[in-house]
Amino acid sequence: MSDFAADPSHPRYQSLLLRHRLEQAEKDGLLAGSAMIAHGRGEAYDYLLGERTIPSAHMATVQALAALRKAQRPVISLNGNAVALAGESLLMLAERLSCPVEINIFYRTPERMTALIGRLEAIKEKHQLEVQILGAEPNARIPGLEGPRANCTKEGIIDSDVIMVPLEDGDRCEALVAMGKTVIVIDLNPLSRSAKMGSITIVDELTRVVQNMLANIENSAVDEAFNNDEVLADALQHIATKFTSP
Fold first, then answer.
1. Residue 141 bridge partners (DSSP)
2. pTM to 2 decimal places
3. Structural domains present in the chain
């Protein structure tokens, strides 16, 4: 990040920083060509949310963290954007949860997989983290799902009971839910298929979510009254209120 020269006092500093991370990751071979399009779509929704963690998103974050801590076999699934934007903090979270991460990408090439695994291994070595990184050698397939993202590992995605899927594709989310898993979705769009299909949906920006999880890891408990539809409705209401309030 040494070539990132934006002034921290700039009102768009955080947004510019995240864009820079993606630009650099693309140069390093981590991302597919559509990565910036996907990020821009999410960023637009973040504008509508006020670029902050709204109360319902914080509630969902705590619920998700509690579910991960309670799980017998939790796993965090990562795509290219997730690694580029928050790879370091996601690995730190995985270590705190004593769970593996699994790389699962749609546009899968040997070059991209090598780049993504190399990035995560470098983070592990830098911070001396004890985290298993899966995905290099798929040995199973997600039932009911076609295409490259069906390829996964039995010891990771298949055997998991709770799975966190930042920046998810709706069809894979639906297939994971059909397997009986608790699926935690991080998605800034409360209308997306993933958001609607997820067991717990956090309508918030990825880097904020992971930092909130790390800050609250010792203070989370499952809320039996949690209702994911209410979380989505609240996010939509928040967006609507923003444009109707004087």
1. 151
2. 0.90
3. 55-244 (3.40.50.12640)
